[in-house]
Amino acid sequence: MCGIVGYCGDKLASEVLLSGLKRLEYRGYDSSGISVNSGNKLSIIKKTGKIKNLRDAVPENLPGHFGIGHTRWATHGGVTDINAHPHSDSSEKIAVVHNGIIENYTGLKEKLLREGYVFKSETDSEVLAHLISKFYEGDLESAVKSALSLVKGTYGIIVMHADKDNELIGARNGSPLVLGIGDDEMFLASDVSAILAYTKQVVYFEDGEVVKVTSKGFTTSDLKNNRVSKDMENISWELEEMEKGKFSTYMEKEIHEQVESIPRAMKGRINEDLATAVLGGLNMTGRELLDVERVKIIAAGTSYYAGQVASYIIESLARIPSSAELASEFRYRNPVVEKNTLYFAISQSGETIDTLFALREIKRKGGRVLGICNVVGSTIPRESDGGVYIHSGPEISVASTKAFTSQITALYLFAIHMARMRDMSQSSGAAFLKDLNIIPEAITDILNRKAELQKIAEKYAHYPNFLFLGRGINCPVAMEGALKLKEVSYIHAEGYSAAEIKHGPIALINEKTPSMFLVPDDHMREKIVSNMKEVKARNGKVLAIAVKGDKEVEDIADEVFYVSKTHENLYPYLMVVPLQLFSYFCAMELHRDVDQPRNLAKSVTVE
Ligand code: M6R
Fold first, then answer.
1. What pTM does this model have?
2. Could you state, in order of their start, the residue ranges of all structural domains in the chain?
């Protein structure tokens, strides 16, 4: 979603801001803008479309050494230059960039209009500029605090004033904000990718905190003016990890990276002697873990499907009742938080607002929540009681791929740990871990044969509808496959339990609606094969991901892609990678913007 960046130092602010905004592109946006001080006046430039449009509009060597920038993902008001940020007050001395939503903006705006303030845009964010201006009497920080004390909603903001040379004010509530510390220069941003090219030393802020930044230092306080001391942290990501390297898109790169990211999620977490996993970050004693009677996983999108896969595995290996639930629904249904239930919040970005607010609801009711996240220092892991970082490295493509396989890996390790504490034998644990260890090899084999999937995708990319069908642990994988195809290729796709099609979706089957079946050689295989025959009997095209040697599938299906044999609980890895590649190749065939599909954002920080 929206991204914000701020700079003060010796460099040309416009250059730093434009390069930061470029790095924030992956979040998804439809317009962008910057404001820099040029003497005692602000130069504000805003453009719809790609950052290139903004760069073309910014004069070369635009003077100014402090400034703010924004990528906007429209919520209130259409995609226009005027609605793009930064927003300014009537004097054009104060400029604001804002992520989040000001929920009470209508009331605030009406009051400001009555008081004579003139609005230029249709956004909720513009009220902030006028409110700050209303309270400004020479002290920008206190004007920002007075304005924020009237605001309801979520925000990550950066504010500048033309007369306040070398000063930025940042504040957060529900939307992320990080400070980057350089040599006599400071950066503010919504995520570290915007500033990684300049510094790796960062400070993360909490909700309710306000930071005053100059090129030489910063002070943090809360809205009631209490000083807050902050710790500095180091970012572990390397800048090269954020480049495409030899690949033409981030999605393709990240699909390939799974061969390394899965072992990274396991690194240092396996005790081979005891045939178990070691997860220190859970912050729970063995006794506390033994008391767990139920596991509930809360997440959104792809992370939710990873949660569904994980709930199968936790129940199957550790014999603990387990289920996954959509965070957006969970938080609003006054959930019953049980004493011996352990909650997991899964989120690649660690910033998804639905998941974050569900986590807060659980904690408010006294529950224990563990985070499974990728972005170190993001809000969900910081607010969790413990958890596991998946260490996938930056996932830039809007379509999540490598995070999915690493999320399930982290929870497979949790399942093994719990199972070995309960009734899984050492030899069964060792056998499972051995199979898990060779998954990257089996994925390499899939990647080496990706041309086969490309051929299938080229043949089917022009079909308007798809069904993705699986059973058991691969049912959520089918749903993830459908989600992937929808988001990157814009082909309509539905993911279903293959058993459920008879209860409705089979009505869709005709020669124009292909079905992608997931056919592992597990205890559900025979049933899936019957479902394939049912589709074939109705003139439906059948595509299948099956296990090498399964000739029967070849006889039924129009197209088959084969994967290696593995433990029946590990097929989600080998089923999902071909589906990711299939979606990717369909999108390429249709000339879609694979990494930044229309209307989507990488990190969904509004409801
Ligand atoms: O950062 P999160 O894992 O919390 O994000 C959750 C979803 O927004 C995300 O998985 C989304 O569905 C992806 N675009 C799927 O590819």
1. 0.89
2. 3-235, 244-437, 442-592
